[in-house]
C-alpha cells in the first residue's frame, strides 16, 4: 500500500471515530447530587455509556471521577474490578473511591454515604468501568452480545477507551495507567498490549500509556491456589511440622493431589479441614458462610463473599446477628437498585435486550469458574 493510501485510511479512521464520538456526546452526564449523600458532591462525577462492538450493540457504563487535586496534571486510571462480572461500583465504594457507606447512620432501605479520606481520587482521575457486558449497568441490545471471552472483553475495553478519549481530549496528555484487582489480572495485561500495539501502528487517538497497576491479581488457577499453602503458613495458620510435611509429600502440587500418593492426599485433606472456617479475605474476621463439603480439598480454601444473599431480594436481605464483612454489601443491593438512584446516575431503563439489574453477586463468577475448572 502506498504512503498516500495509508494516510487516506488513517484519516478515514479518524473521521469515523470522530463521528462515533459525536453520537455519544449525549450519553455523558455530570452528576452533582446522589441519594444518600447530604448536599452537593465535593468532587466531579460523570456517568455515561459508550457503545462498542458491531453497531454498538454493547453499551458499557462507567463512572468517571476527576482528581480532587489537579485534574489536568494528575494521572488518569482505568479501574477494572474483578469477577469477572463484579461491578465497578464495588471498587468505587468499597475500595478506592471517594464515597463509602456510613454503616452507623444507615438503616433499613436508606443507605447513606460519607467521604473516604483515603480515596485515590485525592491525587488521580479514575474511570470505573462496568465490564464485561452484563456487569453492573452495562448491557447489550442483543442476547448474542452477552457471550464474551476475556480476549473479546479486552478488545471492547480498548475500543471504549479510544472513544472515551475522543470525547475527553483534555485528558489525552495525562499519564495513563490501566489498573484493577482480582480477575483483572487476566484482562489488564491484554489491554495494555492492545494499547501498546495500537500506539505503535498509529491508532487514533494515541493513548499516553505509562504502565499498569494490579492488586491481588488472579493469574493462573493452579498456581494461585497452590500458593495458598505457603501463604497460610506465613500467616501462622499452619504449624511448621505440618507445613514441612505437606510440602515434602505434595512437592508443591496441592490442587490435584495424586491419588497414588496417599500421604499428599491425607495432608491436602487436613489442610482443607484446618482452613475451611477461615475467612481467607480477612483472616482476622469471622467467616461469613460455613459450608461442610463432603470432600475437603485445597480448593475449599476460598472466598465466598456475598453468597449468603445470593437468593435474597435486596429489599429483604438483612445482616445476620453476628456481623461479618458480607453484611456491608447489603446496602449495595438496596442503593443501586433504587429507581431514584438509577435516575440520578442516568441509567437507561430497559435499554438492553432485557432490562439490566444491578447484581453484586456477580462477583462470585470467578469462584464458580475456579470450582468448575478444578473440581473437588
UniProtKB/TrEMBL annotation:
Protein's UniProt keywords contain Signal: yes
GO biological process: proteolysis; secondary metabolic process
Keyword annotations from UniProtKB, A to Z: Signal
Name of the molecule in the record: Uncharacterized protein
Gene3D superfamilies linked: alpha/beta hydrolase (3.40.50.1820)
Pfam families (UniProt xref): Peptidase_S10
Residues in the signal sequence: 1-27
GO MF terms held by the record: acyltransferase activity, transferring groups other than amino-acyl groups; serine-type carboxypeptidase activity
Organism: Rubroshorea leprosula
Family: Belongs to the peptidase S10 family.
Domain of life: Eukaryota
Database matches in SUPFAM superfamilies: alpha/beta-Hydrolases
Tagged with keyword Signal: yes
Amino acid at each position: 500500500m502506498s504512503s498516500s493510501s495509508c494516510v487516506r485510511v488513517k484519516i478515514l479512521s479518524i473521521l469515523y471515530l470522530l463521528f462515533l464520538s459525536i453520537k455519544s456526546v449525549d450519553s455523558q452526564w455530570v452528576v452533582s447530587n446522589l441519594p444518600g449523600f447530604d448536599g452537593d458532591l465535593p468532587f466531579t462525577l460523570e456517568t455515561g455509556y459508550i457503545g462498542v462492538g458491531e453497531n454498538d450493540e454493547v453499551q458499557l457504563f462507567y463512572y468517571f471521577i476527576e482528581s480532587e487535586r489537579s485534574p489536568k496534571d494528575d494521572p488518569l486510571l482505568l479501574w477494572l474490578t474483578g469477577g469477572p462480572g463484579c461491578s465497578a461500583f464495588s471498587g468505587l465504594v468499597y475500595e478506592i473511591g471517594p464515597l463509602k457507606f456510613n454503616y452507623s447512620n444507615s438503616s433499613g432501605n436508606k443507605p447513606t454515604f460519607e467521604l473516604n479520606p483515603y480515596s485515590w481520587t485525592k491525587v488521580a482521575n479514575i474511570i470505573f468501568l462496568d465490564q464485561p457486558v452484563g456487569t453492573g449497568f452495562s448491557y447489550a441490545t442483543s442476547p448474542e452480545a452477552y457471550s464474551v471471552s476475556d480476549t473479546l472483553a479486552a478488545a471492547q475495553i480498548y475500543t471504549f477507551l479510544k472513544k472515551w478519549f475522543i470525547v475527553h481530549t483534555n485528558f489525552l496528555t495525562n499519564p495513563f495507567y490501566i489498573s484493577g484487582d482480582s480477575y483483572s489480572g487476566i484482562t489488564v495485561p491484554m489491554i495494555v498490549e492492545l494499547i501498546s500495539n495500537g500506539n505503535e501502528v498509529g491508532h487514533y487517538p494515541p493513548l499516553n500509556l505509562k504502565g499498569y497497576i494490579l492488586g491481588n491479581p488472579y493469574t493462573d488457577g493452579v498456581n494461585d491456589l497452590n500458593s495458598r499453602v505457603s501463604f497460610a503458613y506465613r500467616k501462622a495458620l499452619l504449624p511448621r511440622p505440618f507445613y514441612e510435611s505437606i510440602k515434602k509429600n505434595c512437592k508443591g502440587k496441592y490442587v490435584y493431589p495424586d491419588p497414588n500418593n496417599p500421604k499428599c492426599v491425607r495432608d491436602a485433606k487436613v489442610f482443607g479441614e484446618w482452613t475451611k472456617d477461615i475467612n481467607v479475605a480477612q483472616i482476622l474476621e469471622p467467616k461469613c458462610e460455613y459450608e461442610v463439603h463432603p470432600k475437603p480439598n485445597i480448593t475449599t480454601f476460598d472466598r465466598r463473599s456475598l453468597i449468603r444473599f445470593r437468593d435474597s431480594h435486596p429489599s429483604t436481605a438483612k445482616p445476620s446477628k453476628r456481623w461479618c464483612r458480607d453484611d456491608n454489601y447489603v446496602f449495595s443491593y438496596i442503593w443501586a437498585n433504587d429507581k431514584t438512584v438509577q435516575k440520578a446516575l442516568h441509567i437507561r431503563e430497559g435499554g438492553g435486550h432485557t432490562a439490566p439489574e444491578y447484581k453484586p453477586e456477580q462477583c462470585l463468577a470467578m469462584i464458580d469458574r475456579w470450582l468448575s475448572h478444578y473440581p473437588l
